Amino acid sequence: MQQSAVPELAHAHTRPIHWLATATAVAGVVALSSLVQPGSATAAQSATDPTAAPAPTAVAPPATTGVTFPLACGPEKALVVKKATGDLDGDGRPETAAVVHCDSAMGTPPDGVYVLTRAADGHTPRVVATLVDPKDRLTVTDFAIHTGTVTATLLGYSTDAVPRCCPDTKTPAAWHWDGKAFLRTTPAGAHSV
Questions:
Q1: DSSP string, 57-92
Q2: 3-state SS assignment for residue 1
Q3: Phi-psi category of residue 137: left, alpha or beta, with phi > 0 → left and psi -120 to 50 → alpha
Q4: Phi-psi region for residue 54, left (φ > 0), alpha (ψ -120 to 50) or beta?
Q5: Is 4 helix (H, G, I), strand (E, B) or coil?
Q6: C-alpha distance from residue 148 to each of 38, 172, 174, 178, 180 (Å)
Q7: Distance in Å from the first CA to the final CA of the chain
Q8: SS3 assignment, position 31
Q9: Which of 9, 111, 119, 131 is the right S-S partner for 140, CB 3.0 to 4.6 Å?
Q10: φ, ψ at 55 (rounded to 5°)
């Protein structure tokens, strides 16, 4: 066993005086903390800056019920199959992105992806953007909104010979608002299959 180069310290062995000093110090801290107390809490906040903008009030995202989607379904009705909400334009109010297709008893109807916001009256939802047009004959999966970006996986067909039941391409996509329009990007390293 190797010996320490430092001589043994005197305080390495506790004695009753050490315990007494520690207890006195702790008692002093407790006594002092009982004298110094924070101010009482209130529910109202004091106005420190009268020119500061008021905090935004919580606004419900636009609903999809009663919305007329730009989708030609003939005698069938438009069916919302997925939706996600989030603040897409950074204004503090949520928008709704919806995946919609015609309600068909047969086949795989193509999806459309639409962004809804509230109209000027603040109540009526309205379509403000089309991210995926049903004319593109795509099916949308893995649909979500994350930090102001709409993400999805788009299933499609490489040729007209591919049966509509069995998409043979798969492409991840993302859309974000640039201040004027929604821009579509394909995440790095994404491949169509």
A1: PP-PPPP-TT---S---TTSPEEEEEEEEE-SSSSS
A2: coil
A3: left
A4: beta
A5: coil
A6: 40, 17, 10, 11, 14
A7: 66
A8: helix
A9: 111
A10: -65, 140
Taking the chain (193 residues) in runs of 10, the rounded mean pLDDT of each run is 48 65 72 61 49 63 91 91 94 94 86 91 88 95 94 94 88 94 80 52
Q: What is the CA radius of gyration of the chain?
A: 31
Residues 6+ apart with CB under 8 A from 149: 88, 174, 175, 176
Residue that the structure tokens 């801290």 belong to:
29
What string of H, E and C letters represents the secondary structure of 113-148?
A: EEEEEECCCCCCEEEEEEEECHHHCCEEEEEEEECC
Tokens of 143: 């649909």
